[in-house]
């Protein structure tokens, strides 16, 4: 199975997204899920992104394609903030196994 692409987005694509992406990568690694986590600016979300995550106020304004699911979080550095996204990635994996 091809890795599921997760993009972590913020205003500038810098500090907030990098730190949040690090927390999310660790969760993905612990769960042994076939996914990659990269960062980008809100205006530069790649077309092949399956899941978009970031601060709720930013994610809610980003235009994405129909197959991209978005997840807004309030506490970027709290691992449990990504529980809903982790479950969605698990479900995606089960659908393609």
From TrEMBL:
Keywords: Transferase
UniProt keyword annotation of Transferase present: yes
InterPro entries: PTS_EIIB-like_sf (IPR036095)
Organism domain of life: Bacteria
SUPFAM superfamilies: PTS system IIB component-like
Protein's recorded name: Phosphotransferase system lactose/cellobiose-specific IIB subunit
Lineage, opening ranks: Bacteria, Bacillati, Bacillota, Bacilli, Bacillales
């Amino acid at each position: 199975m091809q890795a599921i692409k997760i993009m972590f987005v913020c205003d500038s694509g810098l500090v907030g997204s990098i730190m949040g992406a690090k927390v999310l990568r660790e969760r993905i690694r612990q769960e042994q899920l076939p996914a990659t986590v990269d960062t980008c600016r809100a205006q530069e979300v790649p077309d092949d992104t399956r899941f978009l995550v970031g601060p709720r106020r930013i994610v809610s304004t980003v235009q994405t394609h129909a197959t991209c699911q978005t997840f807004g979080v309030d506490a970027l550095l709290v691992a449990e903030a990504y529980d809903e996204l982790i479950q969605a990635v698990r479900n995606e994996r089960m659908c393609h196994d």
